Amino acid sequence: MSNASSIRCLITAGPTREFIDPVRFISNPSTGKMGFALAEAALEAGWNVDLVAGPVALEEPDGAILYPVVTAEEMFHQVDALFDACDVLIMTAAVSDFRPVVQHAKKEKKDMASMNIELERTTDILKTMTDRKVHQTVVGFAAETNDVVTYAKEKLLSKNLDFIVANEVGQPGVGFAADTNEVLLIAADGSSVKLGPSTKAAIAKELIQLVTPSA
């Protein structure tokens, strides 16, 4: 097994915000709790941690290097800058898939604003990184409301991941905003391990152990 003190881990956490105008944006309910729990667990394991976080209301993990971002594009550029030096990338962030084509410089007045917003896709950060991975172990998250395992396995293959964490959201007590979770870790070789229901902190410790790169 690799020397823990030499493992550099890059973790993304939280939501992104894609602005319509300076006071309105498209986002999601992610709070960053799972990503921050993973950062804490990685630090406890002796890893070096870079944490790229969208807008969250969480205390910075002591020992991690925190890179605050807001939009998907900002998150992409920060991950892009840090990826080559990392050994493990864990993408827990709920990155917005779409953003408005036009971001208005001033607040749109309610009685004058268009009721139709044209959207464009944001950069697929995970796929962009795996397309150029050399030695990195890459772990993705699949937050789904239905057919969770099916969609997770599709994402595992299409994005060339080493592991994916299948995570059902929209149910009480698990997923977004909750302090507890229940997930299925699926490896590229087809094996899987069910984790939880338990606290996100406990699940994070197990995940770090399971995705630790071999020597």
Topology of this protein?
Blueprint: E1 8-13, E2 18-21, E3 24-26, H1 33-44, E4 48-53, E5 65-68, H2 72-83, E6 88-91, E7 98-100, E8 119-121, H3 125-130, E9 137-144, H4 148-158, E10 163-168, E11 180-187, E12 192-199, H5 200-211
Describe this structure in words.
By secondary structure, this protein is α/β, with parallel strands linked by helices. It has helices spanning 33-44, 72-83, 125-130, 148-158, 200-211, and strands spanning 8-13, 18-21, 24-26, 48-53, 65-68, 88-91, 98-100, 119-121, 137-144, 163-168, 180-187, 192-199. The termini are close together.
Overall structural class, as computed from helix and strand content, comes to alpha/beta
Mean pLDDT: 93
By CATH's scheme, which homologous superfamily applies? CoaB-like
Oligomeric nature of the chains = single chain
Overall, the morphology is globular
SS element count, helices: 5
Task: Write down the secondary-structure element order.
Answer: EEEHEEHEEEHEHEEEH
How many individual domains?
Answer: 1
Q: What portion of the residues fall into strands of 2 or more residues?
A: 25-35%
CATH fold descriptor: Rossmann fold
**What is the CA–CA distance across the termini?**
4 Å
Q: Describe the strand arrangement of the main beta sheet, using strand numbers.
A: 5-4-1-6-9-10-11-12
What is the number of strand segments?
12
Q: Radius of gyration, rounded?
A: 17 Å
In summary, what is this structure?
This protein has 215 residues and is α/β, with parallel strands linked by helices. It has one domain: 3-Layer(aba) Sandwich (Rossmann fold). It contains 5 helices and 12 strands.
